[in-house]
Design brief:
The structure is a single chain. The protein is α+β, with helices and mostly antiparallel strands. It folds into three domains: 2-107, Winged helix-like DNA-binding domain superfamily/Winged helix DNA-binding domain (Arc Repressor Mutant, subunit A, Orthogonal Bundle); 117-215, no CATH class; 218-446, no CATH class. It contains 16 helices and eleven strands. Helix 5 crosses helix 6 (143-168) and helix 10 packs antiparallel against helix 11. The chain is elongated and about 85 Å long. The two termini are 34 Å apart.
Length: 450
Amino acid sequence: MRYRFSDFILSPRRRMLVRNGREQPLIPRYFDLLVFLIEHRGEAVHRRDIFDRVWSDVVVSDSALSQAIRTIRRVLGDDSRAPRFVRTVSRHGYRFVFADVVEEDDEGEWQEVAPSCSVALQEAASDSYEALFRHVTGVATTASEEEEQREAAELLHALGTSEALRRLGTRPRHAFARALLRDTRWDAAEAGPVPILGEPAAAAVAHELVRLRLRRAAAVAATRWAGASIGGGLAGVLAGAAGGLILTTAPGSAASLALVPVLAGIGGCCGAAAGAGVGAGLSGAESSVRSQRAIALICGGAIGGGVAGAAAQWLGRWSLAALVGVNVNTGGGLEGLVIGGAAGLGYSMATSRTEGGLAAPRGRRRLGAAGATAAACGLAALTLTRMGWPLVGGTIHAIAQASTGSQATLTPLGQLIGESGFGPLTAAVIGTSEGALFGLGLTLGLTRRP
């Protein structure tokens, strides 16, 4: 079926919105939102239901929905103060209120459809570009002013992106305006490319773009960062507890059951710290970069993991030397850098089709993403251990050997595997398991939908 209302025809099958024989462009998610509202036009649709339907595979901020509604209203020529089509239901969601919607069969060919501008665009075209430039180069102090800026940027795209950039030139605050045009091009179906490299003030534009996107996605990114930290911590607890249980039951081991909660606590702290670092890097990269997403995720994960690892390395060495007089060459910085980069690689490959938000796959796709990240982290951990760089298990064994009477030496685990002690095969098995479990927990925590 298709829907006819006022001067419009909406065809879900053809994915077209037409007004008086002229197509009105909308990006796919905004088109899906309009269809959803019309399908449920007899009710006020809750924001949560909209997110579950339209943004089912990603997590976005509330501002993304507000922008979608604003764009739909612009294309329909609607006014939020006296709505004919889409009405805001306070503290709930939105409702399609146009009463005379006709459902008709969508078979057969349509008459020729020509591309067209929206009513709002036609009105904007009659004015000078200067009125819109005053908005996009101004300083917004309220949320409504920020939305007006984005509205102006969308209208500039509709008038012609290349012409808008040419006229913008290097006037005051042009770097912010270019960043805003770059950001809104993903939400305006008429938008053209907005290059940064090779253009005026490229570094300033990139800085403004990252700041703009991080500010809009701050709440979502913070939630995902916390989820990644919890996921990494739980993975560390599981790895530590499992290792402790195996160690207590290994032949020739002097370890008692009291070692199990100790190793679980150490694993949990290490996993949570690593998850916080890598999760922050991944969340920040995914929020701020869209064109080169894979590269950004790899770099973000590597930087976050490296910082967390270096901090843990410094704290561990200082604490051991100061408290018990043990000097052990503990790892951290390099290992965090490699594991974090591998997590970014696996996560980016598994969620490469994500558009318009932060990836939040469900069901089997979520498990697939977790498996891919676990495999990448496990392979990276195996490489590190083969090169002689210990992870948590290897570091605990080194500390235990340097101490007197420690129960945490992992020599019995090596004997279980078939080595005479904690040899390269044992280190590889333990390190690979640590890396894979960390990647699994990190991704499950990172992709949890709030």
